[in-house]
Amino acid sequence: SVKAAGKCGYHFFDESFYDALVSRHQREKELRYALDHDQMVVFYQPKVDIATGTTSSLEALVRWAHPTQGIVAPNEFISLAQETGLIARLGEQVIEKVCAQLAYWSEHTQQLVPVAINISPTHFQNGNIVEVLSSCMKRYGIPASLIELEITESTMLENTEEVTQAINALRKMGVTLSVDDFGTGYSSLSQLHSLNFDVLKVDRAFTVRLNRSKDGNILFTTIIKMAHSLGMRVVAEGVETLEQIKTLKAMQCDEIQGFYISQPLPPADAQPVLPKWFFPSIM
Ligand code: C2E
Ligand code: MG
Ligand code: MG
Ligand code: MG
């Protein structure tokens, strides 16, 4: 058996290690199959303007419609996609689906809102994200005003020439650029500002700390003030209570997103969001 351990008791081919290898290989095969057979679906979660209660944009969040496991969350497969180089294909499929969805919605609704697409750091560094996005937008007739990109703070940490160039090219295209999960990395606001980001999405970890301690509130207020003074809008991620919303409103946060307002929705359910889906419960 693979479990034949040496006398020292340390065995490389430990059964769980072997199982992990096999299942990892299996998962990679399944992921490849999923991309070949169009098993990825995109859900949409609204971001709401805190002052008016209206939806200002939607975030596209990928899910794997697995034939036996049901809907699988991205945390289960994004890192595998990154490690195996499949992330560029995955990202391209999400871009394609979002553009197709926007084209469909523009035929069927009056007021379109922009959609934000998450871009992985590795896709950003290795792929030809600018070409892929611009050709897809052209093909579906989607104006830049309807596209936002969410780029995690960790991408900026590897502030390579490539990343800076890609960001500048995207800026020229006119798409909106957001920093995702702000506060989880160590980038400075001035660094983000020099790259001309439009929006700062403050990580859920900071939202969770609101009203729990004085420090939690001071941190959030300070981030909002600094972002505003640099001309960036602020979105609070992971808002789950009305109490948090009241506090964020008092702090002049611009937008909120979270389960209190809406879970990510399948496209058919997200459609009513488009003619300015209004959330009176937060007013
Ligand atoms: P993210 O971009 O920061 O997205 C926010 C995540 O928090 C989403 O999880 C969302 O469902 C969840 N969330 C929203 N509101 C709340 C709340 O009130 N409470 C809590 N506890 N969670 C909330 P999801 O959809 O599982 O996505 C996880 C991460 O996977 C995303 O984090 C993003 O980094 C990545 N991801 C999702 N879709 C894509 C994609 O199409 N491409 C790439 N490269 N990454 C993606
Ligand atoms: Mg995001
Ligand atoms: Mg985020
Ligand atoms: Mg996050």
UniProtKB/TrEMBL annotation:
Residues 24-278 form the EAL domain. It comes from the Bacteria. This is EAL domain-containing protein. It comes from Keguizhuia sedimenti. The chain holds residues 586 to 868 of 868 of the full protein.
